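Hi P.,

Sorry for the delay on this. The queue was packed all week, but I finally got your sequence through. Input first:
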Amino acid sequence: MRSIRVNSERQYSVTFPLDWQSQVINAISGRNVAVLTPERLVSQVLGTFSKDQIVVTEDGETQKSLTSYSKVMEEIARRGLNRSSVIVGIGGGATTDLAGFVAATFMRGIDWIAVPTTVAGMVDAAIGGKTGVNLASGKNLAGAFHSPIEVIIDTSWLKSLSQRDIRAGLAEAIKCGFIANPKILELALNWSENLEEIIELSIEVKAGVVSRDFKESLEREILNYGHTLGHAIERHSNYTLRHGEAVSVGLCFAAALSSEKCGLDAGVVAQHERLLQHLDLPTKYSPTAFAELYELMQNDKKRRASEIRFVTLTELGKTDRTVASRAELERIYQKTVGR
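Then the structure:
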């Protein structure tokens, strides 16, 4: 069975079993378990787990709230989970983010296992130990670093995903291609035939970065390429845009910013828009939204003092950081994505 090793506050594996059910049963080893999963996946989880082991969450980004978090914490406490228990998160990135945060904070930290069921969850959210929920002020502002004991990747989950969800998840893979492994960009041109390889290569990128910089002292920030504006757009749209759809616009903006501030070749900038459009992902957003987006970006976790810091590219596969004035950012926004 193929596996990818991640070294963080603990060592764990991202495994690629033939079926997730046998792998997760082996991983929990008879321990008391709470399985967090959204309503739409309950029928697929029943049978492997009993009804009294399942904690049903909301669908999508709605579950990443302090209200949902509090309900889950109270429920697992009521069920008698303890420090030897284990949380299993089965779902998309929002579910694994919530499950990990619950595990990080229940009794000051218990084990958890991620079983991502979406492309975005597999290549991004479930890898790296970042857990958390959203606040009204911004995404992921309440959270903790708490790695799972295992991430179980079974791509058969993807058969039930909509084309929109698959393509949105691929935005995170495209990011990995631009910051570290251009082979992903080539494979994405025929993504439907190369999906499993794209997922594995993207996981390798993230696992490598996380293993070198678990708590985002500097290098791990490169995984946020395209996310500073992307997170703001996601929040501004009230989450009507998928995370990857918002990041797609953010990637195009980050490329244009990289061109102006870091000398990124115009051909690489054009490649961003061309490839993302090939995946039917958005590359534009409202031209009148910049003032509100700028305010939302003020809460970005990479901000230092009064400056919003952006991850940029100097060339394909090489990253940097830059800051820009509000006037510069607005000009680039209106020139590129805001039309």
